[in-house]
Amino acid sequence: MCGIVGYTGKGLALSPVLEGLRRLEYRGYDSAGIALVVTKGAPLWIEKRAGKLGNLEEILGDAIPESHSGIGHTRWATHGGPTDDNAHPHLDNEGKLALIHNGIIENYVELRAELEKRGHTFKSETDTESVVHLLSDARKTHKGDLAAAMREVCGQLRGSFTLLAIHSDEPGRIVGSRRNSPLVVGVGEGENFLASDVSAFISHTKRALELGQDEVVDITASSIVVTDASGKVLPHREYEISWDASAAERGGYAHFMLKEIYEQPKAIADTLIGRTAGLDPEITAGIDLKGINKVVIIACGTAYHAGLVGKYAIEKWADISVDVELASEYRYREPSVDAQTLIIPISQSGETMDTLMAMRYARSHGARVFSVCNTNGSTIPRESDAVLYTHAGPEIAVASTKAFTAQLIAMYLLALHLGRVRGTLDSKIAHEIELELAELPAKVEQVLETVEPLRELTRKFKDSSSMLFLGRHVGFPTALEGALKLKELAYMHAEGFAGGELKHGPIALIDTGTPVIAIMPAVGTLLAEKMASNVQEVKARGAIIIAISDAPLASADHLIRIPSTHEFLQPILSVVPLQVIAYEMAIARGNDVDQPRNLAKSVTVE
Ligand code: M6R
Question: Within this chain, do residues 403 and 468 fall inside the same structural domain, yes or no?
Answer without folding.
Answer: no
